[in-house]
Design brief:
Blueprint lengths: L2 H18 L2 H6 L2 E6 L2 E7 L13 H16 L6 E10 L8 E12 L2 E9 L5 E11 L12
Antiparallel strand pairs: 1-2, 2-4, 3-6, 4-5, 5-6
């Protein structure tokens, strides 16, 4: 197996490990489309119960989708990470029935701190939100590995 294939396999295993402990993913109907070292793509269909009094998707639903992509991307290399800070800018409204896609990409990594940028778009390709997350590595592993000899 190539090094890239090994990294992708590890990223997928880390994603599955995180998903097992995350009930919100299933509740929101978030699907994991792609995960690789330092990146992830997730999708969610906006349902009626996700809309607010304006008839548009609650910002918290969009935030949760982007935050999930962030989590999968920054934990994709078997080094546990937590969010140190995040921000989101809502640029356009999302509506019932639309499929939203969040794509997370690592922009920078220095020591234990990573910066990830996440774009959320609807199925027409309209940019709905921009999310930026700063991750902090913590000790341990997501998946136990055998010690090196």
């Amino acid at each position: 197996m190539t090094e890239n294939a090994d990294k992708q396999t590890l990223a997928q295993a880390c994603c599955e490990q995180l998903k097992r402990g995350d009930g919100l993913i299933d509740h929101l109907g978030i699907s994991i489309e792609v995960v690789d070292a330092g990146s992830a793509e997730v999708r969610m269909r906006v349902q009626e119960w996700m809309t607010n009094g304006h008839g548009t998707c609650h910002g918290g639903m969009i935030f949760s989708l982007a935050d999930s992509a962030f989590a999968f991307a920054c934990n994709s290399e078997n080094q546990p990470n937590v969010a140190a800070s995040v921000s989101i800018d809502y640029l356009n409204a999302a509506h019932k029935g639309e499929v939203l896609t969040a794509i997370a990409t690592r922009t920078a990594q220095r020591g234990r701190t990573g910066i990830y940028d996440i774009e959320v778009k609807n199925d027409a390709g309209t940019l709905i939100a921009l999310f930026r997350g700063k991750s902090q590595r913590i000790s341990g592993e997501l998946i136990a590995t055998e010690p090196s000899v």
